[in-house]
Each structure stands twice: as C-alpha cells, then as structure tokens.
Specification:
With about 290 residues, the chain is mainly alpha-helical. The chain contains twelve helices and no strands. It is globular.
Length: about 290
C-alpha cells in the first residue's frame, strides 16, 4: 500500500528517534565502563528481539517477517554494525560533545548517497539545511588546532558507515515495513557479533544491567522511529533533522550534569533549527516528493 508523504509525521517519528539516541549515548557510556562493546551490542540485539515481539505479533507474526531482499538487509546491517561498534568504542575515548559533532558528518554522506543511488534531488533548500547544520555544529564544538585523536577518526568512520546504513534503510522502506527492517537488523546483528561476544563474555553486574536494558530498548526503537520517519519523507529531508541532537545533547548535559550552555551553543542551535525549519517550510510550499514503491 502506498504511503502518503507527510513532513509532520516524519518529524514526529524523528523526535522519538532523537530522544532514544540521546538516552542510548548516556547508557552506552555507563555500560562500557564494565562490559566489552561486542557483549553490549549482542545483548542489545537479543533483548531487543524480545522487546520487538509485540510489534512482530501485531504485524502478522514471524511469517510476515519473510523478505525477498535479504541481501539488502545483510549489507545494511553489516554497515550499521560496524558504525555502531565504532560509535560505542569511541564513547570512552573522546568527549561526548566531540563525538556527537563529528558524527554529524553523517547527513552529508547520506544526502550524497541518496542523490547518487536513490535518485533523490539535492535542491538549494536541502543543501542549505546541511550547510547550516554543519556550521552550527562547528560553532558549538569550536574545534581547535591540534593532534587528531584516534577516537575522532573512529567516529568519522562510523559516520560514513551510518550514511550507508541510512541510505539503504530508505531504499528498504519502499517495500519493507519498519517492523520487518528492525527484525532483520536484530537477527543479523546478533549473528554477526555472537562469537566475539561469547569469547569476551562476562556476566553484567546489577549496577550495569539496567543500562544494558535501556540500550536494548533505545537501540531497537530509535531505528523503528527512524524507519517510520523515512517512510513518510525523503532521506535528504529526514536526516538533517538529526542535527537537532547536538543542541538537545547540550540541554541534557545542562539538566542532568549542570553543564553550562554558552552563547556559542545558543547560536549554533539557532542555525541548526533555522536550517531544518527552512527545509520543512519549503517542502510544505512545493509539496513533498512521493515515495517510489517498487
């Protein structure tokens, strides 16, 4: 069934994805103090399957999860597993704000890939959204001149693989439901990491177990929300909304850790928000592109 494009619905689901990813960043840092990244990701996938089961059942059960695009699912999840592994590993290597900022090269990679492989159009408004988002991130972080840390390179690699993953998700939404996409993500990624996780396994303490459960929930449903958002709008519209995660992370830091929000953060957040609003306003005036169903 063809889905009617809607920027409002896309923004709603993207808001859920943003909230989940921010919470996952905090949980991932806490869990990685005790557990290996392979084990965290394996537990996330296995616990996530149990959490997803009610949606699987309401969508027709495991029989409805059959797919004719298994190779696309495998490729997408191989890329995403590599990116997620690198992202979690870098959490303990560089400051959180720096990690989030470098990760925000992802929308640029995604937009380029969506234009090259999905036939989407990168017009002046979408380009402006990406440019304002990148400028806003630079103003917030204000990177200095110094030695490049290995953690920064790891996150940059993660951003590139996330761009591949998001582009492939958009392609998959043309024929696959969000529940099916997440189901195969959890199945494939649990298979990829099983042997390394078993080799490095240690039983989590009572302190870290709640963080692992939060990672499983947010890691699963952030992707569900992202897939739903991409179902209603182009990747070049949805992904730039993710720039809002930078100022939102600053707000969480202020509320939870009493970190101050300076004038640079305020200016950067304003640029990021302005770029997204310009993009969404233009889409409303000209009309959204209808998604292609193959």
């Amino acid at each position: 069934m063809e889905v009617q494009p809607s920027n409002i619905k896309a923004a709603f689901w993207m808001a859920g994805s943003l909230a989940a990813i921010i919470l996952m960043a905090v949980s991932g840092r806490e869990a990685s103090r005790e557990l290996n990244v392979f084990q965290i990701m394996e537990m996330r996938s296995l616990i996530g399957l149990f959490m997803l089961y009610p949606l699987i059942r309401s969508s027709g059960g495991f029989r409805a999860m059959r797919t004719n695009r298994i190779w696309q699912h495998l490729g997408r999840n191989a890329a995403h597993y590599a990116g997620q592994f690198a992202w979690l590993m870098a959490l303990s290597m560089i400051p959180l704000a720096q990690l989030i900022a470098i990760e925000f090269t992802t929308p640029a990679w995604t937009a380029i890939m969506a234009v090259a492989f999905l036939g989407e159009r990168l017009n002046i408004w979408r380009t402006l959204t990406i440019v304002l988002g990148i400028i806003g991130v630079v103003i917030i972080v204000r990177p200095g001149i110094g030695t490049v840390e290995i953690g920064q390179l790891i996150v940059l690699g993660a951003a590139f693989t996330f761009g591949i993953s998001f582009t492939m998700v958009k392609s998959l939404t043309r024929t696959e439901s969000p529940v099916k996409i997440i189901f195969w993500m959890l199945v494939i990624q649990s298979g990829i990491g099983l042997l390394p996780a078993l080799h490095l396994w240690q039983w989590p303490s009572m302190h870290v177990m709640p963080w692992v459960i939060i990672i499983a929930f947010t890691g699963t449903f952030s992707h569900f929300c992202m897939a739903k958002a991409l179902l209603y709008a182009d990747a070049t519209v949805v992904i730039p909304m993710d720039f809002l995660r930078v100022p939102l992370t600053a707000v969480v830091g202020w509320l939870v850790y009493s970190e101050s929000i300076d004038i640079y953060t305020a200016i950067g957040a304003a640029l990021i928000l302005s770029g997204n609003l310009l993009n969404l306003k233009n889409r409303k005036r000209t009309g959204p592109d209808k998604p292609k169903i193959s």
